[in-house]
Amino acid sequence: MAGTVPSASLRDTFPKLLLENVRVRGDKPANREKDYGIWLAWSWAEIAGEIRALVCGLQTLGVERGDKVCICGDNRPHLYWALTAVQALGAVPVPVYQDSVAEEMQFIYAHAEAKFAIVENQEQVDKLLEIRPQIPALKSIIYNDSRGMMHYQQDFLYKYSDVQDSGRRFDAANPGFFVASVEQGAGSDVCAMLYTSGTTGRPKGVMLSFDNLLITANNGCLREGLSEDEETLAYLPMAWIGDNIFSHAQAYCAGYCVSCPESSDTVLQDLREIGPTYFFAPPRIYESLLTTVMIRIEDAAKIKQSMFHYFMAVAKRVGMDILDGKPVALVDRLLYGIGNILVYGPLKNVLGLSKMRVGYTAGEAIGPDIFAFYRSMGLNLKQLYASTEASVFITIQPDGEVNPESSGTPAIGVEVRIADDGEVMFKSPGVFQAYFKDDEATRETKTEDGWVHTGDAGYFDEQGHLRIIDRSKDVGKLRDGTLFAPKFLENKLKFFPHIKEAVTFGDGQDFVTAFINIDLESVGNWAERRNIAYSGYTDLAGQPAVYDLIQACVEQINNDLAADAKLAGSQIHRFLLLHKQLEADDGELTRTSKLRRAPIAERYADLITALYAGKTICPVEVRVTYEDGRTDTINANVEIRDAATTRAAAQAAE
After folding, report:
1. Which of 17, 103, 117, 481 could connect to 252 by a Cys-Cys bridge, CB 3.0–4.6 Å?
2. What backbone torsions phi and psi does residue 468 show, to the nearest 5 degrees?
């Protein structure tokens, strides 16, 4: 009967929800993509037609229920359609990080036993051709962008549009196939396999069901009141669980439009044009945006610099209270209103966040100062505590109760408890089914009654909000018993726009030391304005003036730490500027830019030894890998400096 709400079983998979969205909002936009400067749009009805053609085309290629289909490329509507098309056949999509080197892809394709691949362009095809002898299970490769593919004649290569054309012919001859295939799906079916970032070893394939993703996504929509009127920009890797929730699952549940940028280089411009109301970014994106802002301020006229710093001080004092609806003095409200006209509003517009109603950050802990910077301008940025094994949501900060130091309260349907050893554990509808082909790891992570070990140390504060200290295995102590929380220190360092990455050491030592990566753009801009010549990253990082610049940042952190009774003893005593940037291609970061501490400690063992041996110079030689697979060797004499520390507040009072 028209107007009735379908039962839950008729909306328990993405393909079924697709048909429901066509019924409810068929003419509303579902996807946009910027191509050659022009925004193209597809309605829900139009993407359903595209997906139907692809489903039938994949059927003609031999995709069967249970097959694994790897999907790889930048954020493109055609690849999001491929996710749903694969699921409609009962197969399992396996998104792969598009910037992975061939060796990393080989592991995932082989481990997943992938039989098919749907990729964006020639670059991804070339990687697969390189590793194909090592992945014999791979039958067919489908590519969307045909630029550069004219002379590729392999019989296992298929153009995306050609597969759709064959699908339309199949559909005409078998008009009932598509709907029948969709109806076979059930909420308990595995609908996606997402690989972990591999911070401590080989990535694991996390198997998630439709119920995991859709129940969790729908609960998230309910929590924030998301509707079909939201706008969001899909620019994060499709292989990451966050993108699968925000750009796919919640879009299907709420019916909102997902837009894809023209390229990674145009994200900021595209962000301004779209003006998302719902936005997610990991801390590194917010750090990068802040760096861009600070560079522009440094280049501005003195009067503009003074105005910016004055009104940002006002925002820091009262902005978050105003956002949370707390009482603020009339004079401060007036000053804040003037600041909104002169500084905050224009700045939000430049960042593309003027319309943002809800913003999230997760993946890594964000520096409290960075978090406060955005909220003080009136942006409703909130922290999540999330994991792939939870289908993202574990805790969310409630409106009006946002604390930069906490991760909020349990999401709808989620239970959280702290184990006797301080480890955070959770139970929810989003709990993953299992790790693919790894029963032992599944048993170690997931208890028989559904509780999941996170590996994170944390506690609930007096307001009932979860606070994450660090990874359980990373939290340590100095020899005198002082708490050593490396992530906390690293995040404070990364608040400074001149610092891109930091790695701290101290567990079992007498004092804390740090590796620091300078931000090439920020420090390069700073150097150019001071007529400091340099030939590249290594040369710039070795400049005495740059060391002075970073030393001031480190000593400011030490001064801040002195006021914290628990962490005053973990001030940074010695530091160095790494001669190269930490890179995922060199195994030092994951594809989601998380530190891989063990490989870093092993690779730079001589530098760590030098930090604690009192040396002031340490010669190094390291091999680096470039994006095109070439390798090179960097030689440098790395300077090591002492940083001034500050007496703890308690000591100073004695």
Report:
1. 17
2. -95, 125
> Which of 207, 246, 151 shows the shortest CA–CA distance to 436?
207
Strand boundaries in 62-112, DSSP class E:
68-72, 92-96
Token look-up 């700073």 returns: 526
In 210-336 the beta strands, taken as DSSP E runs, fall at: 231-233, 257-260, 278-280
Q: CA-CA distance, 466 to 417, in Å (whole number)?
A: 10
Angstrom distances, CA of residue 72 to CA of 59, 69, 121, 158, 227: 20, 10, 9, 15, 29
The neighbour count for residue 353, using CB atoms within 10 Å, is 24
Distance of CA 75 to the CA centre of its chain: 14
Domains, in order of start, for the chain: 8-280 (3.40.50.12780), 476-653 (3.30.300.30)
**Stated pTM of the model:** 0.82
Q: How far is 267 from 250, CA to CA, in rounded Å?
A: 21
For 121, 236, 270, 639, the CA distances from 260, given in Å and listed in that order, are 16, 10, 9, 44
Query: What is the mean pLDDT for each group of 10 consecutive residues in the chain (654 residues)?
Result: 46 95 96 94 98 98 97 97 98 94 91 97 95 95 94 95 98 96 96 84 92 97 96 94 96 97 90 94 84 84 93 94 93 96 93 94 77 93 94 94 89 94 93 96 94 91 86 83 87 86 94 96 91 91 95 94 84 95 87 85 94 93 67 84 82 48
